[in-house]
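Researcher: Quick one. two chains, 655 residues in total.
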Amino acid sequence: MREITYRDAIREALYEEMERDETVFIIGEDVGVYGNIFGITEGFIEKFGKERVRDTPLSEMAILGCAVGAAMTGMRPVAEIMYVDFTGVCFDQIINQAAKMRFMSGGKTKVPLVIRANGMGAGFQAAAQHSQCLEALFMHIPGLKVVVPATPYDAKGLLKTAIRDDDPVVYLEHKMLYSIKGPVPEEDYAVPFGVADVKRSGDDITVVATQAMLHKVLRVAQTIASKGIELEVIDPRTLFPLDKRTIVESVKKTGKALIVTEECKVGGAGAEIAAIIAEEAFDYLEAPIGRIGAPHIPVPFSPPLEEFYIPSERKIEEAVQKLISIK
Amino acid sequence: MLGEKELLKIYETMLRIRSFETKIAELFAAGKIPGLYHLSIGQEAIPAGACLALEKGDYLISHHRGHGHMIGVGLEMSKMFAELFGKEAGYNRGRGGSMHLADFERNILGANGIVGAGIVIATGSGLSAKLRKTKQITICFFGDGASQEGTFHEGLNLAAIWKLPVIFLCENNQYAFSYPARSGCPVGIASRAVAYGIPSVKVDGNDPLEVYNAVKDAAARARSGDGPTLIEAVTYRWQGHWEGDPDHHKEIYRPRTEIQEWMAKDPIERFREKLMKMKLLSEETDGEIKKKIQVEVEEAVKFAEAAPYPDPKEMAKDVFATMVVELE
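Model:
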């Protein structure tokens, strides 16, 4: 199978869906003439025109509000927020409007909207307002679906599902993954929401990881296998809906669980996953549930500080070893 | 020029709004309806005039003080009251209440509990109509308070630069809860349109004909592709900010004399006199209209009271269009 980057996978999904469905349009900052800050929509304006690839002023509330209004009236907007951090500027439209319109109407409207939040995560010294992982904020709001692709295959397949879905979807792109490559089929496919991907099977410990952390966990799994420890690595792919069953069944098999996410650990998606394991697989646990996340501080700027901040492979390996050693 | 039928319709609409909301105040005070209520008594001329200038299929976006707009476009009182009582027969099946009344079958995209949020959503229905190449316009009602929100700037600007078919109608009732519009916007709300390069007009919001004419002109402009208009309709709310606002009974932020002055400019009474002078209304026909509306209100309340509550087990079905949330 051909290999393409995460960036190109997102680009292809958008391109193909815009070709397939003329109600799909893009709205956001620097999406048209500039082609998106990460190069994702380069050439789109030439292909689809400026009516469907809409450059906006720096008005995140208007971008999201416009997208909500358009979604309720027959369109399928893909609203782009340049860095997930900027959702802070338009949070009302996400959590009070997009998320709740259908419910408040008694199920009489729908909001088929994709919020593509670019550039999540730390790793290139973008500092505290351009580096956060905010998945837990969205996961906490009823009415939103939350997608966290980690591979090019999932990035494309999940974005297709998001665009075709009739509900608001927060699609979170991790900035350190744009350049990674992976197999992506040429033909059309979609990845369903709420179905985790077991990246690696093993009997010793279940490790649940998302986005950039998934890749670190897979590298650790590779190294540690030579020492005779087999990790079962699970990528939930969507945090809401969350594939509880795959995670819980895995923990029942291995008896141990470690959750690795890059977000601040306090109140994070990882905390929710840990709580579900405790609720549904407590009797099978042979060790406390392990959790790795960022410390409860803003993402620092200076390279050694940022490096220390982001959960490392060493830290993951140590946590695995510690849990494995508990008999 | 409006004919006899339309003029009487405006009068009836104002009366229907007044009666509907007077009933809400009564039911709320008696503890018969749950929720939070923001009444527009004294402001009825705006929805009555504005809604008459709209066409079927146009989008309407309202706000927390929105019963008048709903009645203005012809929503049924029975299903509105059913919503206020929290019943399944309500427009929102009891999921929304007063602040979220909507009727998607008529393109009434809803009231909104967040002040100013509708202003940017209106750019979306405007853009949608433009992209789908329909002739639909959007009217977006909001208050003087909303004009101080960032959405006002972002929304009007976006609508202006994209020439969206939207009418922004600010119902300046002079107080954002307790905060006076004259303090928040000394320059005047209508004059802000200059900054966006769009036309604006300030009208007497207690005169339904002035409102009608302004909206009619703005609608024609929007429908012919000339973009948005800002209308500021100056009015006054007689009640407190919400039913239960102590200012309604004791002077806190509004001088009583000010309230009395504005009550003397009652839009309904003024229009009644006008219709009398024009010989379109007599004491007798006026009495008949009022009686008819009273019966309508009483029957609507009766319907709502008797209607069944929604089944709690069903509510998880309305969160998403494509999945059902677990109810533990």
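Residues 6-20 of chain A form the longest helix (15 residues).
Researcher: Thanks, that's what I needed.
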